[in-house]
Each structure stands twice: as C-alpha cells, then as structure tokens.
Amino acid sequence: MMVPLAFFVVSLVGFSQAFLDDRCNLMTVSDLSKDSQVIQMPIPDGCITGEVEWHYPKGNLLLEARLPAANSVLCIEESWATMIGAVMEVTGGMSKPMALPTKDSPSCSSQPSAHPQVMLTAEDTQYYMTAFKYSIKMIR
C-alpha cells in the first residue's frame, strides 16, 4: 500500500515542478492577516495563455497584461479548481462586473486595450486554493 502513496507523492511533486517551470503559469499566496488586500499579478511579457494558482485566496487578485497591441482582451477560463466570488473588468480606474467563467464559456473583458486588467474576488469561504486559466485575445 505504500507504493501507490509514494507514486502519488512523486507524481504530485513532478507536476508542481512542471507547473512552476513554465513562466506563463503564475502562483501567489494571500496574506491571511489582511481582509481587504489587492494582490497585483502582472502577466509576463510574451505570455498569451497560462494558469494561475491562488493559494489561500482572500481579498482580491488583479491580473494585468501589458501588450504592444492596443486591441486585446483578457479572458478568464475555468480550470480544475476554480472557486471565485466575482470577476470585474478594470478600465481607467473604474470596475465593471463580468460573468463568472464556466466550463464551456470563458469570461472576457469587453473593452479592448493594451493594458487589460481583470480583478478577481475570493469567495467568502476560505479555501486552500483556487486555480483558473487566462488567455489574451487580440481583437482586429
């Protein structure tokens, strides 16, 4: 019975290392002592798709891209552990509600920009982690 457990642990460590080796996959941890925090998470240059792991989600996470093209939108897609309370598009300091992503329907910002930003709010229930995918789509 120890062999399957050891295999699981080794597989999990291998998966985590592969996740962290891809610079387009992002990870952050909330400061559990702060209720109304905003964690800024810039998407690295050159990344148009990736996954975000937000450990102990609390408060808000601001996902932001800086692109050379002015006609881009930022999309949030459901992943294997997506538990998000709200999603907001941030444009010029103003926020606008977006739909929560579902299995078959990503949620995308509506205002094309060279600096698309999406604010995600953690659910009230404290979870170990939430994960979601992101993609940047160029609009012609």
TrEMBL record:
Keywords: Signal
Species of provenance: Elysia chlorotica (Eastern emerald elysia)
Protein name, as recorded: Reelin domain-containing protein
Domain of life: Eukaryota
Signal peptide: 1-18
